[in-house]
Amino acid sequence: MNVLEIENLRKVYAGGFEALKGIDLTIRKGEIFALLGPNGAGKTSLISIVCGIVTKSGGTVRVHGHDIESDYRAAREHVGLVPQELTTDAFETVWDTVRFTRGLFGKPGDDAYLEDLLKRLTLWDKRKSRMMELSGGMKRRVMIAKALSHEPDILFLDEPTAGVDVELRRDMWELVRSLRSGGTTIILTTHYIDEAEEMADRVGVIRKGEIVALGEKDELMRRMGRKTLKIFLETPLNAIPPSLSDWDVHLDDDGSTLCYDFDGHAEESGIPRLMRRLDESDIAWKDLTTRQSSLEDIFVTLVNEEKQA
Ligand SMILES: Nc1ncnc2c1ncn2[C@@H]1O[C@H](COP(=O)(O)OP(=O)(O)OP(=O)(O)O)[C@@H](O)[C@H]1O
């Protein structure tokens, strides 16, 4: 089941800048979807439109079938947003902050729900603390509590771990997973590849306002990835011999490893011919490995294509 359907979404900011150029995207119930892209790619614009903070210039967006413009209230009820910046009142308590936010959505008070929410986010003990007394990690959790205060089933996290230390990142990842096991669909934006690799079921790569890659994370890595064959040589080489000039090879580890990058899906990898040529050239080797390229390699390739475009 799709909880979010985006068709041909466009955004042109005042001044004429085209931030989104016809985005098509559907999000399935219960998945963790990572929208990955470099700075300025359009990630925040996209989620801000879905959450009703920025108006679109064209296309349609439906949340659980409700159009975000003609059926705004129904659509908005389903989504919670954790923005990039922390926005809370320093003097207010955790409890009041979260309770007040729920009220903003016109929801009747439900202290039992909020108690459960704060317990899930391990904030219950801090409910009487004022925001300024909390650590950075706790403040972030309060932002999540605010976003979930009106009981949405879709949670948007805009760069959830930007500028956060390693331990806190791990905590955040774990928290997001636990929210998902509780039934919440999660859409997060990130420019950290490892974050997408670690968390996402599906990944969309956005570049200059366009989705340039989309798919199951594992499938995307298989489909787009290249492979590298590493051949560990008996004797290091100073340079690539002319006899190997037909292959895309380079030397690593001070000449002791010969690396061959190839398309893992091509009909012919070129490996058997390369191995024969090594034999004919009297280049002895002791071991070899192949490595599937990571999401990082794919991302770097896509971003480099952008620079060349
Ligand atoms: N209010 C605005 N007016 C004009 N241009 C804007 C406005 N908001 C964003 N932009 C531009 O739209 C583009 C996309 O911005 P957006 O914030 O959506 O990117 P992003 O992928 O979220 O980047 P980041 O990771 O840096 O937050 C950028 O070039 C940005 O400068």
Topology:
Blueprint: E1 2-12, E2 18-28, E3 32-36, H1 43-50, E4 58-63, E5 66-67, H2 72-77, E6 79-82, H3 94-104, H4 111-120, H5 136-148, E7 154-158, H6 166-181, E8 185-190, H7 193-199, E9 202-207, E10 210-216, H8 217-224, E11 226-233, E12 249-252, E13 257-263, H9 271-280, E14 285-292, H10 295-308
Parallel strand pairs: 3-8, 3-9, 6-7, 7-8
Antiparallel strand pairs: 1-2, 1-4, 4-5, 9-10, 11-13, 11-14, 12-13
The chain binds adenosine-5'-triphosphate.
Question: TL;DR of this structure?
Answer:
The longest helix has 16 residues, at 166-181. Helix content is 33%, strand content 29%.
Overview of this protein structure:
Helix 6 (166-181) links the parallel strand 7 and strand 8 (185-190). The relative contact order is 0.14. With 309 residues, the protein is an alpha/beta fold. Helix 3 runs parallel beside helix 5. The protein has helices at residues 43-50, 72-77, 94-104, 111-120, 136-148, 166-181, 193-199, 217-224, 271-280, 295-308, and strands spanning 2-12, 18-28, 32-36, 58-63, 66-67, 79-82, 154-158, 185-190, 202-207, 210-216, 226-233, 249-252, 257-263, 285-292. It has two domains: 2-222, Rossmann fold (3-Layer(aba) Sandwich); 226-292, Alpha-Beta Plaits (2-Layer Sandwich), CATH 3.30.70. Strands 6-7-8-3-9-10 form a six-stranded mixed β-sheet, sandwiched between helices. The chain has a four-stranded antiparallel β-sheet with strand order 2-1-4-5. A four-stranded antiparallel β-sheet has the order 12-13-11-14. The mean pLDDT is 89. 33% of the residues lie in helices and 29% in strands. It binds adenosine-5'-triphosphate. Adenosine-5'-triphosphate is lined by residues 13, 15, 17, 19, 37, 39-45, 191.
